[in-house]
Design a protein that fits this description.
Number of strands: 2
Number of helices: 16
Oligomer: single chain
Radius of gyration: 20 Å
Shape: globular
Strand content: under 5%
Low-confidence stretches: 187-201
Distance between the termini: 35 Å
Strand order of the largest sheet: 1-2
Length: about 375
């Protein structure tokens, strides 16, 4: 493969990783996490989740700098250091987790995109957009998510290079959206600690979620660092790019999530955080920038899974752990077309679940099993 087709630390590892980390959970569920957990439990969950990701990232980095790294990402480095049986078991778990995470991102995209265009919504007498009671909102997520998955799959079929280069524009959009959020005006009536403890808010009684549920829904937010590792076969110098890009993305993600948790806690009242998934959008100084950011983040994260997942399966098939059919590649870049088709089928099955929280909990189980 020509050298020009290879990618460096920033483009090949850091960018796809940070785009996946700063994705659907940050935009659509971070407010819910803070509202349910309060500031101390939320910070504890953020630190615990990042402790797991840092430990895993350090392990992958240490192996990547010691061994020759080929295509297949985490599976490749583990199978070459721990043997095919262990590498294959973890590789299969990561492959399924990656495929299901595509569904997580596409349903998250659908949730905010449908509301923006009014698909499944109607206007009340005051001209305010509300859910159309005659429409099954979950079905609208399934339709939009499936169409989006099809378009991203076509893009992946056309060119991996185009897909990766498009991420620079998306990264810019996410940075602008974060500025828009942090420059937003604080709301009146910031959250009070005893409201969290009592499980009630001024407006209505609220049953708060417990630690396990909050952690399960938040944890997929920190799993994005594997997106860059999965592209190991397309890197100029994997031994340098993987450690620097992976740990850099984890560090930036930690800073952003801690800062956002503090901002939400002290700027938006608890009832709004618990009941309005769009609280971040409404309090941003320029809401449209946040919309663009979340659309870009969710689509790029899904695209990262579409690019990375098939490469894990392709590498496993090349080692004869999975059917040889999936080892076949197309073109000078050895694009894993057959593996891509299976990845998309699994992702579509996840999209048909249609519930972001349920998908997040399932994805968490697969990633925690693999990281452990």
């Amino acid at each position: 493969m020509a050298e020009s087709k290879k990618f460096g630390t920033f483009g090949g590892v850091f960018t796809p990783s940070i785009l996946t980390i700063l994705g659907v959970i940050m935009f659509l569920r971070m407010g819910w996490v803070v509202g349910n957990g309060g500031i101390w439990l939320t910070l504890g969950i953020i630190l615990l989740a990042h402790f797991i990701s840092v430990a895993t990232g350090l392990s992958i980095s240490s192996i990547a700098t010691d061994k020759k790294v080929g295509a297949g990402g985490v599976y490749y480095v583990l199978s070459r250091s721990l043997g095919l049986p262990i590498g294959g078991a973890i590789g299969m778990t990561l492959f399924v987790a990656t495929a299901l995470s595509i569904a997580l991102y596409m349903v998250g995209f659908s949730e905010i995109f449908n509301e923006y265009i009014g698909y499944g919504y109607t206007l009340d007498s005051a001209g305010v957009k509300v859910i159309d009671e005659t429409v099954n909102l979950t079905n609208t997520f399934r339709v939009t998510g499936s169409i989006g998955l099809l378009l991203l799959t076509i893009l992946a079929f056309i060119s991996t290079s185009i897909a990766i280069k498009s991420q620079y524009l998306i990264l810019t959009a996410i940075v602008l959206s974060l500025f828009s959020i942090f420059l937003g005006a604080p709301a009146e009536g910031a959250v009070v600690a005893n409201e969290v403890a009592s499980g009630t808010v001024d407006q209505a009684p609220i049953e708060l979620a417990g630690f396990a549920i909050i952690f399960a829904i938040f944890f997929p937010a920190v799993t994005g660092f594997t997106a860059g590792v999965a592209m190991s076969g397309d890197l100029k110098d994997p031994k340098k790019a993987i450690p620097r890009g992976t740990l850099g993305a984890i560090a930036v993600g930690l800073i952003v999530y801690v800062g956002l948790a503090l901002f939400l806690y002290y700027s938006i009242d608890q009832f709004t955080l618990l009941t309005d998934p769009k609280s971040i959008f409404n309090f941003a100084v320029i809401p449209i920038l946040v919309y663009i950011g979340v659309w870009g983040a969710t689509l790029s994260s899904a695209l990262g899974g579409i690019l990375g997942g098939p490469r894990i399966l392709q590498a496993m098939s090349a080692d004869k752990l999975t059917p040889k059919l999936f080892a076949k590649g197309v073109g000078q870049n050895n694009e894993p077309r057959n593996a891509l088709i299976l990845t998309v089928i699994i992702a579509e099955a996840g999209i048909l679940i249609g519930d972001l929280n349920v998908i997040a909990e399932v994805v968490s189980m697969f990633y925690l099993a693999a990281y452990g």
